[in-house]
Specification:
Layout lengths: L1 H38 L8 E5 L5 H9 L4 E4 L2 H10 L6 E4 L8 H7 E7 L4 H11 L4 E7 L6 E2 L3 E2 L8 H10 L3 E8 L7 H18 L5 E3 L6 H6 L4 E4 L1 H4 L4
Parallel strand pairs: 1-2, 1-10, 2-3, 3-4, 4-5, 5-8, 8-9
Antiparallel strand pairs: 6-7
Bound molecules: pyridoxal-5'-phosphate.
């Protein structure tokens, strides 16, 4: 009995410590976003924070939800699907931000509300089929290659369509039943200044908006470059390690 009580107390303590850690990191990230937004003459509330929870457990997703973060991002279906299942009912919006295979599109459509990484025409009918299967509307962003084909992390290539392919992919998404065109997404090129790359993304997004006025999302910026992204007009930043810690 004693041991059991003590075990429970320790668990409670660990949860409390983790919650405080995440809350402190989150406050700092929100402050950075607000500072960058104000400096750029933007309203901080125009920037949506997506917490990237890859490699971290569902319990952290629950902590984030308790702290008011309802937009969460994942980059691998195998990891995201069970995590979304384990946290169902919290009112979360799941953003799929990783390289996507057509054979995973249907699974992703089961839990995701946003897919940021559409960079090939072949994915579009696969996502539309998934949206129909779950009777939902899926918001899709075209991922743009801002000038590198390098790899990030271990297993996730950066991906993205070349800028000249954006219009045809955007048109195909907008025309697909069950899909809504959200806008554009990009990862800053490795080994280059992120600012100019994000400005190129912004210019592409403005051009896209003339053909698709409701495609207003610009998903750019991660822990290391969110200030540059917000300065260049990002509407959504995808932040993992600055909130949850360095991934191992
Ligand atoms: C992991 C990841 C992020 C978050 O990266 P951090 O550096 O941990 O903030 C953002 N976007 C994509 C596409 C990712 O894979």
């Amino acid at each position: 009995m004693r041991d059991e009580d003590q075990g429970r107390a320790e668990e409670q303590q660990a949860w409390q410590t983790r919650r405080e850690q995440i809350a402190a990191n989150l406050a700092a990230v929100r402050e950075d976003i607000a500072t960058a937004a104000r400096k750029a003459g933007r309203d901080p509330s125009d920037v949506t924070l997506i917490a990237v929870t890859k490699t971290y457990p569902a319990s952290d997703v629950r902590v984030l939800a308790g702290l008011g973060v309802l937009d969460v991002g994942e980059n691998r279906d195998q990891e995201a699907a069970p995590k979304a299942h384990a946290t169902a009912g919290l009112g979360l919006r799941w953003h799929f931000i990783g390289q996507l295979q057509s054979n995973k599109a249907s699974s992703v459509a089961g839990y995701a509300d946003f897919v940021h990484s559409v960079d090939r025409a072949r994915l579009i009918p696969a996502l539309a089929k998934g949206a129909a299967r779950y009777d939902k509307e899926l918001t899709c962003l075209v991922q743009v290659d801002l000038g590198n084909a390098e790899r990030m992390d271990d297993d996730s290539a950066r991906g993205g369509a070349f800028p000249d392919r954006v219009p045809e992919l955007a048109d195909a998404i907008a025309a697909a039943p069950g899909l809504r065109l959200g806008g554009l997404m990009a990862v800053a090129p490795l080994g280059a200044e992120p600012g100019p790359a994000f400005e190129r993304l912004y210019a592409l997004a403005m051009r896209l908006r003339t053909a698709h006025p409701s495609a207003t999302m610009i998903s750019a910026g991660m822990s290391g470059d969110l200030g540059e992204a917000v300065a260049a007009g990002a509407t959504h930043v995808r932040v993992g390690s600055a909130i949850l810690g360095i991934r191992r």
